[in-house]
Amino acid sequence: MLSLITFDLYDTLIELDPPRWVRLAAACDAIGVTRDGQPVDVDLLRTTDLIAEDFYTRENTIQPIRDRTTAERNRFRREYLARWLDAAGIPHDPATIRALRKAYVAEFDTDEVGGRYRVFDDVLPALTRLREAGLTTAIISNADADVTELCTRLAFAEAVDLIVTSALVGWEKPDPRTFAAALEPLGIDPARALHIGDQPRSDVVGALGVGMRAALLDRYGRYPNPRLPPPHPPVPMVPGLMQLTALVLGD
Length: 251
Prior knowledge:
The chain is of the alpha/beta class. It has two domains: 4-14 and 116-249, HAD superfamily/HAD-like (Rossmann fold), CATH 3.40.50.1000; 19-109. Helices cover 45% and strands 14% of the residues. The chain is built from ten helices and ten strands. The chain has helices spanning 20-31, 42-62, 70-88, 94-103, 123-132, 148-153, 166-169, 176-186, 200-209, 241-249, and strands spanning 4-7, 14-16, 34-35, 38-39, 117-119, 136-141, 162-165, 193-197, 213-217, 237-238. The strands form three sheets. It has a six-stranded parallel β-sheet with strand order 7-6-1-8-9-10, with helices on both faces. Strands 2-5 form a two-stranded antiparallel sheet. It starts with a strand and ends with a helix. The mean pLDDT is 92.
């Protein structure tokens, strides 16, 4: 029986507004980057964003981006954009990447406590329903600074029992110690907890690795056939948090 539901934060409870693929499409348009002579398609960037985000997760696991030198961070961000453009089939060269980097305000450049994030409409109803059912809830976020103030500003911090930020605990998901930073203070066995997030590597594989259950959130319809590296079994996939709530509570 489940006692605890933990949530990723970015693209799970909140999203950049406008989303990063909309920002990148606008940046491409601003400097004249096209695909086959046509404006870059936002839907294509939304789908191929998965490639860039997986690169971010792998690199952030090796060494948190925030802990790198300025030169290393800039090099990483240029490579991040290059991989995204490659996945979308958009021609580019180093000069294009440098120009695009200047035009594109990425999610990691956004003020952590600014007004550039929006809360998904299903967040508060889902958190309220889970609390009414007697479940404990927590947030486990990979972030460069404490996200408590951001969650408070967005008016859902009081709806959860604990907020864990990787920058404060010292490890990034999928490191098991990041998940332990939520499980241990709450005194809940991993087998009685489920984590949901939008990233197969950091959220799903990370949670399964510590003995939690996991679910993959696909808000943007980007996972037609999600695959996890062996030996991990398939996990439930839901398009929103109310569907997760129904799954958890058997509604």
